[in-house]
């Protein structure tokens, strides 16, 4: 059995993460036929079958799944060596992709990441805003901000900060609507919330905290929900840190109802030796906590 070359392992990881020759080729800037030949060469060298072709794409065999951990360890070692060769130390350069829920991605991360890049001009930050859990094992991002710590996989997590939520509505809406003196009065008002079957984490099921009222307007996007509230469509459970960006809104029933949730920074366990990712995570954590305090009016 021949020892696999890194270049072939790199192609193998791309296919395992994308489950497609064409998507892997796009990521590697290779044509799909070349990707297919490289996989065949690796299988011949290892004398095993790494993928099973199905209508859904390329699925790992048991042998392929065992190879993933080995290939990722090689990948991490090479990335760490490249990091050292390009400066390492205390300077951050290169590209870092951060995945985050869209509320965090829209109202918290832009100013935080802009400040980090101002201090580190050689750094390029990409923010991927998606209303779902990121798959770091497939390298969808270098790190992800989540609302729950991971419970499986070769991942590490650290708590970034707490954040708070309240019922909110536009001042124009409140002026024309029935009185809101207690939570029982909510039944007289249209409610804005998540699409129930698209809630990807139980921590986001805010409406269950007030008895699960029926929504008149629903979206899987925090930004859409907030914009509905801004134009006076109804009441929403919104992030306090988003209020500075929505001056039309005000908290309602704040003494009767509030929620506290947390953001966590999740990273792949194999990335702990990559200095630019480690330094970025440290600076991101510090700046996120300071910015959260500022936006929520605690500083």
From TrEMBL:
One of its GO terms (molecular function) is DNA-binding transcription factor activity. Keywords: DNA-binding, Transcription, Transcription regulation. It comes from the Bacteria. GO terms for biological process: DNA-templated transcription. It holds the Pfam family LysR_substrate. Residues 4-61 form the HTH lysR-type domain. Signal peptide: none annotated. PANTHER family: HTH-TYPE TRANSCRIPTIONAL REGULATOR (PTHR30537), TRANSCRIPTIONAL REGULATORY PROTEIN (PTHR30537:SF3). Belongs to the LysR transcriptional regulatory family. This is Transcriptional regulator, LysR family.
């Amino acid at each position: 059995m021949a020892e696999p070359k890194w270049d072939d392992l790199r192609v193998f990881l791309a296919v395992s993460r994308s489950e497609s020759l064409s998507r892997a080729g796009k990521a590697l800037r290779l044509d799909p036929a070349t990707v297919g030949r490289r996989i065949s060469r690796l299988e011949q060298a290892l004398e095993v079958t790494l993928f099973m072709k199905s209508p859904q794409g390329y699925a790992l065999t048991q042998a392929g799944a065992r190879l993933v951990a080995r290939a990722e360890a090689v990948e991490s070692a090479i990335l760490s060596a490249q990091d050292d060769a390009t400066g390492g130390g205390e300077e951050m350069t290169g590209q870092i992709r951060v995945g985050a829920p869209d509320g965090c991605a829209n109202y918290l991360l832009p100013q935080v990441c802009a400040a980090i890049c101002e201090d580190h001009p050689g750094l390029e930050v990409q923010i991927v805003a998606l209303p779902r859990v990121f798959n770091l094992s497939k390298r969808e991002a270098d790190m992800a901000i989540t609302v729950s710590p991971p419970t499986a996989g070769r991942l590490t997590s650290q708590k970034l900060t707490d954040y708070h939520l309240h019922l909110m509505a536009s001042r124009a809406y409140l002026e024309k609507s029935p009185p809101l003196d207690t939570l029982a009065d909510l039944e007289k008002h249209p409610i804005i919330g998540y699409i129930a079957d698209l809630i990807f984490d139980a921590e986001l099921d805010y409406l269950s905290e007030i008895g699960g009222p029926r929504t008149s307007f629903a979206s899987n996007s925090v930004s859409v929900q907030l914009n509905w509230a801004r134009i006076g469509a109804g009441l929403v459970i919104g992030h306090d840190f988003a209020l500075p960006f929505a001056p039309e809104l005000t908290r309602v029933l704040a003494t009767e109802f509030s929620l506290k949730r947390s953001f966590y920074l999740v990273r792949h366990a194999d990335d702990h030796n990559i200095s630019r990712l480690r330094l970025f995570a440290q600076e991101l954590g510090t700046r996120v906590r300071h910015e959260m305090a500022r936006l929520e009016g605690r500083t």
